[in-house]
Amino acid sequence: MNEVVEILKRLLEVKEVKVAVVVGEDGLVLDSAGSEEADVEAIGAICANGYLSFKRIGEELNYGAVVQSVTRFQSGVIVLSRLPNQLTLAVVATEKANLAKVWDATGGIITEMARILR
């Protein structure tokens, strides 16, 4: 199993995290780990589009590059984090997830992923 998938699996150890996906700006999934019920291809495509929307907002407001985006829904949370080489890490969790734990786990993994994906 490749190193990226092993790292993504560690995110699944955070209670209520269901899926972790590394996706390119074109929406293609590089690697993923998580629930077999999840359509990771759809998640990847939609999250890539979401990242590009946030990127455009940041440009319009002169806020610089997107580093991370957290979106809460009625029934879940998605954390998008920027990786090197125009890649994005998408972490999908249920509404019961402890956002601080998800955010903390994601932050630690971003550095490790950046080293591997350069």
Q: Can you describe this structure?
A:
The protein has helices at 3-11, 40-60, 99-117; strands at residues 17-24, 29-34, 68-73, 76-83, 87-94. The chain has 118 residues and is α+β, with helices and mostly antiparallel strands. It has a single domain, classed as 2-Layer Sandwich (Beta-Lactamase). Strands 2-1-5-4-3 form a 5-stranded antiparallel β-sheet, with helices on both faces. α1 runs antiparallel to α3.
Task: Average the pLDDT over all residues and give the rounded result.
Answer: 90
Q: Strand percentage, roughly?
A: 25-35%
Gap from first CA to last CA:
19 Å
Estimated radius of gyration: 13 Å
Give the CA-based shape. Answer: globular
Cross-sheet strand order for the largest sheet:
2-1-5-4-3
* Count of individual helical segments: 3
Short summary of the structure?
The chain is α+β, with helices and mostly antiparallel strands and 118 residues long. It has 3 helices and 5 strands; from the N terminus they run αββαβββα. The two termini are 19 Å apart.
Question: Keywords for this structure?
Answer:
118 residues; alpha+beta; Beta-Lactamase; 5-stranded antiparallel β-sheet; 3 helices
Draw up the topology in text.
Layout: H1 3-11, E1 17-24, E2 29-34, H2 40-60, E3 68-73, E4 76-83, E5 87-94, H3 99-117
Antiparallel strand pairs: 1-2, 1-5, 3-4, 4-5
